[in-house]
């Protein structure tokens, strides 16, 4: 049955930023498509949001056929529309690039970049059918400057940022918007306890709660910016990197040494 409400399709919805976004949009009357590999997390999310207020299903974002099937099912629930596609699913494996197992490297690439491309391709027909729709992808502050210690994760997020910038131009021919999020240190399980402890109490590298990211997703749908920083202070870091990348390189090298100590 078609649902007349605005709708959002969220990957990685069972926990962290995806869960906070699901809850926020549902609380504001949106129909939520919540997708994740975490079955128990989806079950508890469905119990909190209510079965009538969304679609809750397991999904491997690297499986193109499964993604197309999930998107088709979501389209049947919304009457063939999608207001906001939120490519949020992502994984990270810490470690020095030359020391990581190749399988771990490829897992990060497949989920964080190939999964995003698969999701966008699957979503485009519904997005094109929906006036004012937005394709939003979760990148990272590590897409501002390559982050040592999570080099592969950082590389995939640079790729996501570049893809988004290109699509923000290509999709204009459909009247479709494309933007990304650039979150800093977010209080989710993907962030190590050591980094959480090192975070300052304020400023661009403070520890941000997932709810603040969810509010930024809401702002992104209602705004028209290309890059959305969380917190907004990170824009200054982006400008610093563009102006003096070598100085930033040395600062980050010192930070890695302090973290490894």
Task: Tell me the layout of helices and strands.
Elements: E1 7-11, H1 16-27, E2 31-36, H2 39-49, E3 54-58, H3 64-78, E4 84-87, H4 102-128, E5 134-138, H5 151-170, E6 177-183, E7 185-186, H6 193-198, E8 207-208, H7 210-222, E9 227-230, H8 234-243, H9 245-260
Parallel strand pairs: 1-2, 1-4, 2-3, 4-5, 5-6, 6-9, 7-8
Helix pairs in contact: 1-7, 3-4, 4-5, 8-9
Q: How do the strands line up in the largest sheet?
A: 3-2-1-4-5-6-9
Helix percentage: 40-55%
Give the number of domains.
1
Q: Could you name the ranges where pLDDT drops below 50 across 5 or more consecutive residues?
A: none
Radius of gyration using CA atoms only: 18 Å
CATH topology name, in short, is Rossmann fold
CATH class reads Alpha Beta
Order of helices and strands: EHEHEHEHEHEEHEHEHH
Structural shape: globular
Named CATH architecture: 3-Layer(aba) Sandwich
Provide the residue-averaged pLDDT. Answer: 94
Structure, explained:
The protein is of the alpha/beta class. It has a single domain, classed as Rossmann fold (3-Layer(aba) Sandwich). The protein contains nine helices and nine strands. The strands form two sheets. The chain has a seven-stranded parallel β-sheet with strand order 3-2-1-4-5-6-9, sandwiched between helices. Strands 7-8 form a two-stranded parallel ribbon. Helix 1 (16-27) crosses helix 7 and helix 3 (64-78) runs parallel beside helix 4 (102-128). The longest helix has 27 residues, at 102-128.
